[in-house]
């Protein structure tokens, strides 16, 4: 049984520090625009499956990343499916405060976050960071539960800012994702 939220602790590095990536890996990991749109362009059917949505306290490193005075967030974990196959595990940390109680990002349901945030011209994205998740990382429990082959995984994360609201999004490419081919 998997306990959510899954840990995404890793050695996160800026795109300039990461070495040994193939062109396909760079193309997907360094994608500056909507990953949702890119995945939709590669498949006939795109869907979001919500795994968990719960209030959690940010770790000290996550608070530092968000540079917010907020310590409680809505943690949302989803699978992005292309043609019914899970290709990306995504986790977002959406700060909760009295100012954003009606925040539309807190009520996404099975809608992709990317469909909403990339429509707003005010969206700003901090630098993308990349991490490798070895075959002993806690993420592998999800890989096993999905009956996917165990392999080292690549992920990316960024802090986004939308009208002075900062949130963190991490996407991990699952075995069989396009960037590994």
Architecture overview:
This protein has helices at residues 23-29, 35-41, 60-66, 113-117, 140-145; strands at residues 13-14, 46-57, 72-82, 85-95, 124-125, 129-133, 153-162, 165-173. The protein is α+β, with helices and mostly antiparallel strands and 181 residues long. A hairpin with a 2-residue loop joins strand 3 and strand 4. It is globular. The mean pLDDT is 93.
Topology:
Blueprint: E1 13-14, H1 23-29, H2 35-41, E2 46-57, H3 60-66, E3 72-82, E4 85-95, H4 113-117, E5 124-125, E6 129-133, H5 140-145, E7 153-162, E8 165-173
Antiparallel strand pairs: 1-6, 2-3, 3-4, 4-8, 5-7, 6-7, 7-8
The helix tally amounts to 5
Largest sheet, strands/sense/barrel: 8 strands, antiparallel
Question: Helix coverage percent of residues?
Answer: 10-25%
Task: Supply Rg.
Answer: 16 Å
Could you list the spans in which at least 5 consecutive residues all have pLDDT below 50? none
What are its keywords?
181 residues; 5 helices; 18% helix
Short description:
The chain is an alpha+beta fold.
